[in-house]
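[Automated response] Your request has been received and processed.

Submitted sequence:
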Amino acid sequence: MYRFLLTRQWVILTLIGLVLIPVMIELGFWQLHRHERRVAHNAKIGRALDAPPVPAERLTAPGRDVPDSAVYRRVTARGSYDPRHEVVVRRRTNADDEVGFHVLTPFVLDNGKVLLVNRGWIPADGPQTAFPKIPAPARGAVTVTGRLMADETSAASGIKDVRGLPDRQIMLISSGQQAHALGKEVLGGYIEQTSPQPDDGSPQLLGAPDHSGIGAHMAYAVQWWLFAAGVPAGWIVLVRREVKDRRAAAAKTESEPAEETAPATA
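Generated structure:
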C-alpha cells in the first residue's frame, strides 16, 4: 500500500520537504539573532543616554573613529561657536517628516581643537541651491552638551555623498571632510546638541533616539519554526490521504461483480 512513496512524484515531494525544514529552521534563528541584536542595541542606547555626561575629549580625538560603545553617550565641551564656517546638511527631516536642513556648526574648544555640533533642524523655506537663513548660535564662551555620534557614511546611512553641491552644503557629516575644509584638528564624529536650548526654538533640537521598540523579529522567528514543523505534519496528512484514497479505490474494484462472458451460439 505504501509503495507509491517510491514514485517520482512522491520522491520529489519528500526531498523538497527535507530541504525546506532546515532552511526554515535557519531562517527562524536568523530572526532570533536579529531580535537579540535589537534588544542589545536598545539596551546600549539606554545606558548611554542615562550615563552622566563626560568631557568629549575623553571619548574622541582628531582623526579617530568614535567607538561603538561611546555612540549616544552624553558629552560636554567648553568653547565658542564659529558660525562663519557653518554648513548645512541637505535633505533632513524633522519629527513631522518635513524636509529641511541640519545645521552643523564648528565649536572651537579652549585648546583650539574643533568639535562639530549639529545644532538641529531648520526648514527649507527657499530654493535648495540657496544657503538658508540660520539663527545665530550663542556668542562667546559657552558650555555645550550633546549626544556623541559617529561620522556618517553612505554604507551605514544609505545617503549618497553627492559632490558639486552649492557652497556650504553637504550630504553627510564627516569630521575628516570638515577637518580638510577648516584646516584644523577636528574631533572624530560629532554631537547632537541637547543644551543650551535656542532662545527662539530654532534650530529645532533633535530628539533622542527611540530605543523602546523591538520590532517583530521574535514573532517572525516563531513563525518560521511553525512553518518547519508544519512540513512533516503536512507530509503525513498527504500520505494518509493517499493511502485512504487507494484503499477506497481497491475496495471499490473488489466489490464490482465480474462481467460474465456470454457463450457463443452455433
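Summary generated for your ticket: The radius of gyration is 33 Å. The chain is about 35% helix and 20% strand.
If you did not submit this request, please reply to this message.
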